[in-house]
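Schema walk-through. Below, the input block comes first and the output block second. Nothing else is stored per chain. Lengths vary across the set, and this one has 205 residues.
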Amino acid sequence: MATSQYSFPISLIRQYCFCPRIPFFNEVLNINPGDRPWQKQGIAYHERQRILNRRRTLKRYGLKKGTIHHNVWLAGSIIPCHGICDAIVETPETVSPVEFKMEASRPNRGQILQLAAYGMLAREKFEKKCSVMFILYGNKGKVRQYTLDDKIEHEVKNVVCKILRSIKKGLLPISAASAAQCSQCEYLNFCADRETITSKGRNKL
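--- output ---
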């Protein structure tokens, strides 16, 4: 399965960082756990921000001029991944990926690596420099800025290689996910060895 022609969704980079079993369930077993209420909320939030973003200036991104492209399909040869980036800010010399997040809390490692993967593919697609990335969050569309450098690109490629090896093996990976992580995972019902601590002792999740 993991050949030079194979490509997996960029979102699995974030999911792998949350739990390495998710790419296995998704790509090897082809399991669709179904939609969750928060996913519908996220879709509604993305649509609202897309509409609002068309009216906003580029000042929030530290730019005076440029073009915002929404829902940009990205795929390429630099990493075997594909996906739709929420937005790409394009200037005459550069491109910057933008991801919309409902939560006001700081993005986790997986979310930042996913954003970096979009940046790497946007650079390839538009053939322009990409060194800055953005996460737009909250109802007011506040912005956090991140740097796309060699270090984070190396980390993205490392995670991609781990995902490909896991898929090629076709074996259920070991997971160090915590009980708190498992309790919010849509794939929980497919794991038979997850445990949690309750007031009455240790129970299987």
